[in-house]
């Protein structure tokens, strides 16, 4: 029988995805730029060999797949994807589907999708989350493309996706760039989750002078509570892992410079493009950039010194650690609320009709941000599908009210001690601005009108007024 699906690119992610597909009983044709890697992959496939058709030429590869042929391209994002598609195109037939499973910028996905419009070929932009392990044993999969193309791959993708209570973590989310857009926001939220965890770690390390191992134990405990999630779990494990060279906690031996490949930044750029505040995600991306400026930071510490403020002032240590747990939950709520708000704006902007409860559902397992919390988001959006924002749904408004006091105490204590908490503070600022019916932008409008005659609306209803600036001063001014 012919293969159900094909895959190009036998790097770590591609190989693992191919093995996962084969293991779930789907015959798969594989191809790699270097035939040697294809042979090696096949040799290592052991008992899964029966389900794998290793191919050394594109002709052979395409012929091995049942039409209309779904072909997953799992290579480095960017130009290589365009080049691969060009190489593949001459061999394909009407209705064949090229599937980009890398971390593509959704704007590239939209362009690729459009470029194939009159060719008879179709395209799927597919976000895959869960790292190497996820790809091998069950990722979360976010699909964007034509619904017909989705129907052709639904069975295979459902068989390989992670399961949450037997529900597969894969869904068709909309046309063209929808899947890659949602994956981008997943990553933006991932950045915020990771940054907030790092900020809390910083308070425990530099504020309470706790050792990595002690902090690891705190995270382990939190993982049994409301913060239960993959990132908290691995953070605990990370903190308790020893460096084989020195025997010290390995986290203490790791340079404090974080890398980034662009997806976090894209989510912030798109949020800004649409005028949606995503401050906690922005703070997380900026914190990574600042982290990479290690030399500059060290020089600045010499010039400016650390803020000579009080040591973290904590009267009841246990109560403060409980506050940290609630603060992290509150910060998380802020970041997710922002991520979902960006998706809801994008859904309108790009005409996708993104299904929010489904997105929360397919993030409950398999992906990097998987957590119990996402189950609560699923319920909240299912109960209130038209809510303007996650934080005003009945379930989450209650959670915000329960936890924002702790966030306020933690952010204040950290600020007074000079400990940086940019993402947590941004989440707090977001809550405080979002929930305040009367803000301060009347002052901005007055200034804009003063220097640029931009006009303002009045609270008594009249639109586009201009101020009599300076002419009629208020009595006593
Ligand atoms: C995932 C991850 C994965 C990867 C990103 C993060 O969902 O499985 O997000 O896609 O780790 O590339 O990248 P950076 O931290 O390097 O930007």
Automatic annotation (TrEMBL):
Top-tier EC class: oxidoreductase
GO biological process: one example: D-gluconate metabolic process
Reactions the enzyme catalyzes: 6-phospho-D-gluconate + NADP(+) = D-ribulose 5-phosphate + CO2 + NADPH
Pathway entry: Carbohydrate degradation; pentose phosphate pathway; D-ribulose 5-phosphate from D-glucose 6-phosphate (oxidative stage): step 3/3
EC number: 1.1.1.44
InterPro entries: 6-PGluconate_DH-like_C_sf, 6PGD_dom2, 6PGDH_C, 6PGDH_Gnd/GntZ, 6PGDH_NADP-bd, 6PGdom_BS, NAD(P)-bd_dom_sf, Pgluconate_DH
Residues in 6-phosphogluconate dehydrogenase C-terminal domain copies: 179-470
GO MF annotation list: NADP binding; phosphogluconate dehydrogenase (decarboxylating) activity
Positions bound to NADP(+): 9-14, 32-34, 75-77, 103
Top-level division of the source organism's lineage: Bacteria
Gene3D superfamilies for this protein: 6-Phosphogluconate Dehydrogenase, domain 3, N-(1-d-carboxylethyl)-l-norvaline Dehydrogenase, domain 2, NAD(P)-binding Rossmann-like Domain
Record-annotated active site: 183 (proton acceptor), 190 (proton donor)
Keywords: Gluconate utilization, NADP, Oxidoreductase, Pentose shunt
Family membership: Belongs to the 6-phosphogluconate dehydrogenase family.
Subunit structure: Homodimer.
Function per UniProt: Catalyzes the oxidative decarboxylation of 6-phosphogluconate to ribulose 5-phosphate and CO(2), with concomitant reduction of NADP to NADPH.
Name of the featured protein: 6-phosphogluconate dehydrogenase, decarboxylating
Organism: Mycoplana azooxidifex
